[in-house]
Write a structure and sequence with these properties.
single chain; alpha+beta; 3-stranded antiparallel β-sheet; two-stranded antiparallel sheet; 4 helices; binds zinc ion
Length: 118
């Protein structure tokens, strides 16, 4: 018999810190978000959450990245003028999306609704 720990985020008042995604602005447990920091004008992922300085949080989701870019949310989050480079974090997010199967063609088949022909 295996007793697995429930995710902390399911418990209100739990100790899991909640962060806001700079893309969709949704609040989520920090373990669901990717921490990013600014290094030499580029937004880079900080998966170990150890890098110094101001961090921002984003869902590892290409659409959140696109939204954040459109809004210049990174510039605001890092309090810099102008735009910042997102190529590094983009490739990280795309790699992540690939590994969890987001947008895989056959995933659509499994979730396709059965339509009643009447
Ligand atoms: Zn998001």
């Amino acid at each position: 018999m295996v007793h697995r720990q429930e995710p902390v985020s399911a418990r209100p008042g739990g100790a899991s810190p909640v962060r806001t995604c700079v893309g969709c602005r949704a609040r989520a447990a920090d373990k669901l978000l990717l921490r990013v920091v600014l290094v030499d004008g580029n937004v880079v992922p900080d998966p170990r959450r150890r890098m110094p300085g101001r961090g921002a949080w984003i869902h590892p989701d290409p659409s959140c990245l696109a939204t954040a870019e459109k809004r210049r949310a990174f510039s605001r989050a890092f309090k810099v003028q102008g735009t910042v480079g997102v190529e590094v974090v983009r490739s990280e997010i795309e790699r992540h999306a690939d590994s969890v199967g987001v947008g895989r063609p056959h995933a659509e088949e499994e979730t396709r609704k059965q339509v009643d022909p009447s």
